[in-house]
Amino acid sequence: MVDHVVKRSEEIEYEPVDAAEGLQKGVLLDESDGAPNFAIRRFELDAGAAVPEHTNAVEHEQYVLAGEYVVGIEDEEYTVSAGDSLLIPAGAVHWYRNDSDRPGAFLCAVPNGDDTIELVE
């Protein structure tokens, strides 16, 4: 049995994401905390920022916490805002664009383990 974990907000360190200027990631819980199956991360997307087209080797589920921004998944575009949820299948081409003057934030859950991210040229 896994011990329970309570991780306080002040313990979360946010780091810039290399391939996307204006995107920061904080790992809320993952295998290093004893979570056996999934990682939960929080992303912050600055006003005016964009994340280029890319794919991930693993699925990810997202929950929008704040702001309004555009997510492209394959050939579709969706304007999302607080309370919206997304499923991005493994291998799906996707991207983000925040055209607003307010930052966006979302939670992202992924399976533990390796995740290969590939930029789409």
Describe this structure in words.
The chain has 121 residues and is mostly beta strands. It is 0% helix and 52% strand. It is built from no helices and eleven strands. It has strands spanning 14-16, 23-29, 38-45, 50-56, 60-66, 68-73, 76-81, 85-88, 94-97, 104-111, 117-119. The strands form two sheets. Strands 1-2-3-10-5-8 form a six-stranded antiparallel sheet, with no helix packed on it. The termini are far apart.
List the helices and strands and how they pair.
Elements lengths: L13 E3 L6 E7 L8 E8 L4 E7 L3 E7 L1 E6 L2 E6 L3 E4 L5 E4 L6 E8 L5 E3 L2
Antiparallel strand pairs: 1-2, 2-3, 3-10, 4-9, 4-11, 5-8, 5-10, 6-7, 6-9
* Main beta sheet strand tally, sense and closure: 6 strands, antiparallel
Rg (C-alpha, Å): 14 Å
What is the overall pLDDT average?
Answer: 94
Write down the secondary-structure element order: EEEEEEEEEEE
Please tally the β strands and state the result.
11
Main sheet strand line-up: 1-2-3-10-5-8
Number of alpha- plus pi-helical segments: 0
